[in-house]
Amino acid sequence: MATETMSRCLACGFEAPAGADAWSSVQHPPLGEMTQCPECGSTETRQL
Ligand SMILES: [Zn+2]
Fold it and tell me: Where are the chain's structural domains?
């Protein structure tokens, strides 16, 4: 089953497949790598 997981930015509503090149990522030392919205720079994302 190829289920594509989408992620959405909670700040601006940007959506793209989770882990896609469309997303940026930032390093947060305690948490590791976090997904960052390329549109607004928020790391408040949720997998749909
Ligand atoms: Zn955003």
Answer: 6-12+21-47
**Overall pTM surpassing 0.85 (yes/no):** no
pLDDT string in tens for the chain (48-residue length): 667 899 999 999 999 999 899 999 999 899 899 999 999 999 999 998
Q: Residue 18 and residue 32: Cα distance in Å, rounded?
A: 16
> Could you tell me the two tokens for 42?
């928020």
Distance in angstroms (rounded) separating the CA atoms of residues 27 and 45: 15
How far is ligand 1, taken at its centre, from the CA of residue 3, in Å? 23
Distance 12 CA to ligand 1 centre (A): 4
